[in-house]
Write a structure and sequence with these properties.
The chain has 609 residues and is α+β, with helices and mostly antiparallel strands.
Length: 609
């Protein structure tokens, strides 16, 4: 579904960029503009500029820039439609999207219904915990774990009664059908592999029942804070029952692509450039509430490739804070490959025996826990020690076995510099030459680099040549210059200029140089690299002699295009075996091009006469 351009322009006009960015961090006035330290890279001197007149931002340090939509996209790490809806909600504008194909409409409505159901379910679970008698045992348990009522409210923790159809009955009363409830994963159907509760006598007559029963409920949100799934923890262990139970895969929830807590911690992740990773929801909540806010938790015991790729958008370094037991150690190992494949630096903060981040931060406090994070060891230092701790290195067979295990792990390192460092560490601890240890690495890891994604062309492509850039600036900023270009045969000329695509886009648009909202709406149609260019042009001064200069640059471009066409025609006419008709046509073309080049000596004036 598409958002109409008129709506985008209306939203841009209603959201002052200074107010929007100022709601995230302080801006200081600098003449007609505002300045701040750039939120997208580390710097000591402010180079991040916000223009209230143009309604754009640009960083002269890292090149980030664009419209108010681009800022929200980059700062919040959301896509364009999400940024539009967020800004629309900020000013009370309703976004009515254009209808698409029937299947697209059906999917869109199904998603909206699922999101609404999850939001209402989260509220129902939360009220059970906070307000109802049925939640008293859960309140006592959470209090023992240091979770106050205020913390429970901030994280919208809930409780699912230990009943078979408490939620399902409530949801059906609100108009949700069984099919939709099953699709959400909140209700499930009885099957042969899911035996009923032994204390329930009439379950055979039931067609569906609640997935979460007798559990504390943790809402799982996407990175913009929408509830998309739940995780439920048992209050008391039951034989054959999992301590934690997650929602199944749904159209909203892909377990391998979600990080618990990211919606609350992403700003701290960017600011610290480091993610503290723990295993469970309670661990994360305890750390966050203690003031250690750059935390995330995978939906499971190890990182997936998708989760690591998402994390790389925010940080360069990861500190694993898994439990000290065998399961925690195994989770650290399984997380390694995905993290290293995304060029993340990995360290390990070891927990004392019998402790987890939740118990440790409550017992020791924030400062002591932060010291542990600061002292976290490089993953390979930690792992090498772990592997050789119980090995007799005087035994050649045992030494070879541990060397092979270490080599297999090191082979997962993508970066050649880090891999070389890990090889040196392992060989030194085993007291074997590095060249001998390296022979144990799989050949593919030693001799063939893992193919890497090429950076997007837009990120590395240089800007257009000077005169094209200046014409872009003038077409964006000066009404008379834009009008002059519009009456030229600009499309015919510019389509033959390799780096003029952005100028074509500017001249094709119906933007108005004096209307900041229309500029923002136009910028919303551009790729990120193009938007950065435009934001930099909009902050430049328009040359005083704009009229004369636009005509001069335009004539220069036309001259080069005509000269190139003339040279090509003169070369073609030299080709042997041309027909008489081809030769005559080329001769006419050459004469016409020569006449056009002579005509350039009498340029048109700015009024088109």
């Amino acid at each position: 579904m598409a958002i109409p351009s008129e709506t985008i322009e209306q939203i841009a006009a209603a959201n002052d960029i200074v107010e929007v960015i100022g709601s995230y961090f302080p801006l200081r006035r600098a003449g007609a503009n505002f300045k701040a330290l750039c939120p997208f890279h580390q710097e000591k001197t402010p180079s991040f500029l916000v223009s209230p007149s143009r309604q754009t931002f640009h960083c002269f340090g890292c090149g980030a820039g664009g419209s108010v939509f681009r800022f929200v996209m980059d700062y919040e790490h959301v896509d364009f439609p999400s940024a539009v809806r967020k800004l629309a909600a900020r000013v009370g504008i309703t976004v009515v999207e254009k209808r698409g194909a029937v299947d697209e409409d059906r999917q869109h409505e199904a998603r909206r219904t699922l999101l609404k159901l999850h939001a209402e379910a989260a509220e129902w679970f939360h009220e059970n915990l906070i307000k109802r008698e049925v939640g008293e045992p859960a309140r006592k348990y959470l209090k023992q774990r240091g979770i106050t009522a205020e913390i429970a409210k901030r994280w919208q923790l809930g409780y699912a009664p230990d009943e078979w159809e408490a939620f399902g009955s409530w949801a059906r009363e609100r108009g949700y059908d069984v099919r939709g409830l099953i699709a959400s994963g909140l209700v499930k159907t009885k099957d042969e592999n899911d035996s009923p509760h032994p204390q329930t006598s009439n379950l055979k007559s039931q067609k569906s029942y609640d997935r979460f029963r007798g559990r504390i409920i943790f809402p799982i949100c996407n990175d913009v804070g929408e509830v998309i799934a739940f995780s439920g923890r048992l209050l008391k262990d039951e034989e054959g029952a999992a301590k934690y139970l997650n929602s199944p895969e749904t159209p909203l929830f892909r377990k391998a692509s979600v990080l618990f807590g990211l919606d609350k911690s992403k700003r701290a992740l960017i600011e610290t450039n480091c993610a503290i990773v723990c295993e469970g929801q309670l661990d994360l909540i305890s750390l966050f509430e203690a003031g250690i806010t750059n935390v995330v938790a995978p939906q499971g015991t190890a990182f997936t490739e998708n989760q690591a790729r998402i994390l790389k958008r925010y940080v360069d370094e990861v500190v694993l804070c898994f439990d000290s037991d065998a399961a925690g150690t195994k989770a650290a190992e399984r997380s390694l490959e995905a993290l290293l494949q995304n060029d993340l630096i990995v360290r390990v903060a070891e927990m004392p025996a019998g402790e987890d981040p939740d118990s440790l931060v409550r017992r020791e406090g924030k400062e002591e826990f932060e010291k542990r994070i600061g002292a976290a060891r490089d993953f390979f230092d930690y792992w090498i020690d772990h592997e050789i701790a119980a090995v007799d290195l005087h035994s050649l067979g045992a030494k070879v076995q541990v060397a092979r295990r270490l080599a297999e792990i090191i082979s997962r390192v993508h970066d050649p510099l880090l891999r070389g460092e890990a090889i040196n560490k392992a060989s030194a601890r085993l007291a074997v030459p590095a060249v001998d240890f390296e022979t144990l690495l799989p050949k593919q890891s030693r001799w063939a680099e893992t193919p890497r994604e090429s950076p997007p062309a837009e990120a590395s492509s240089p800007g257009p040549r000077h005169e094209i850039a200046m014409l872009c600036l003038l077409a964006l900023r000066d009404e008379a210059a834009r009008n002059f270009l519009q009456v030229q045969n600009w499309r015919e000329v510019l389509e033959q200029v390799p780096d003029a695509e952005i100028l074509i886009r500017i001249l094709e648009s119906d933007l108005h140089p004096d209307d900041a909202a229309s500029l923002n709406a136009f910028m919303a149609t551009l790729a990120a690299a193009e938007e950065r260019l435009v934001s930099s042009w909009l902050l430049q001064r328009v040359p005083a002699a704009a009229g004369a200069m636009v005509e001069e640059w335009w004539l220069g471009i036309r001259h080069r295009v005509l000269r190139r066409q003339l040279d090509v025609a003169k070369e073609r006419i030299k080709v042997a075996k041309l027909s008489t008709g081809d030769i005559v046509n080329l001769q006419k073309q050459i004469l016409d091009l020569q006449d056009q080049l002579h005509e350039l000596c009498r340029p048109a004036s700015m009024d088109g006469s």
